[in-house]
Amino acid sequence: MSENNKAILAAANAAIAQGNYEGFLSFCADDTKWTFVGDKTLNGKDAVRQWMATEYVEPPLNIVANLIAEGDVVTALGNITLKDKDGKASDYSYCDIWRFRGDKIVELRAFVIKTEIKDETSSAA
Q1: pLDDT tens-digit profile of 13-53?
Q2: Residue 120 lies inside a defined structural domain of this protein
Q3: What's the whole-model pTM score?
């Protein structure tokens, strides 16, 4: 089951990378619950759809460093870059904990931290 859940998450992420948000949502249960720790909770597929419509102006650049699976849970560690409506990019590091029921995503607990890329050449020695 663990390897199957990793494959499902990889396919879902590939759909997002192609801008196919409905394709991604097809991997989610109707009663999916997404908690962005310290920020907000989205209840249901429609809430996730509305969130994606505002947050994913362009498909995000998502670099997954590690996928760790056990039982019905897959943990993803990585970095993501999102562009806003003005084209300004913001970078984040994340740890996402995805829970599955059968072959559907039923829960996400996302720990997301905005990161700043610093120009090391501008620091004084």
Answers
A1: 999 999 999 999 999 999 999 999 999 999 999 999 999 99
A2: no
A3: 0.89
Contact 81, 90 (CB under 8 A): yes
Cβ burial 32-61 (10 Å sphere, 16+ → b, else e):
bbbbbeeeeebeebeebeeebeeeeeeebe
CATH number of the domain enclosing 65: 3.10.450.50
- Cα–Cα distance measured from residue 59 to residue 43, given in angstroms and rounded to the nearest whole number: 22
Q: Could you write out the DSSP letters of every residue in the chain?
A: -HHHHHHHHHHHHHHHHTT-HHHHHTTEEEEEEEEETTTEEEESHHHHHHHHHHH-SS--EEEEEEEEEETTEEEEEEEEEEE-TT--EEEEEEEEEEEEETTEEEEEEEEEEEE----GGGS--
How many domains would you assign to the chain?
Answer: 1
Enclosing domain of residue 98 = 2-114
Could you tell me if residue 125 is inside a domain?
no
Whether 122 maps to a domain, the answer reads no
In the structure encoding, which two tokens stand for residue 30, read together? Answer: 């109707």
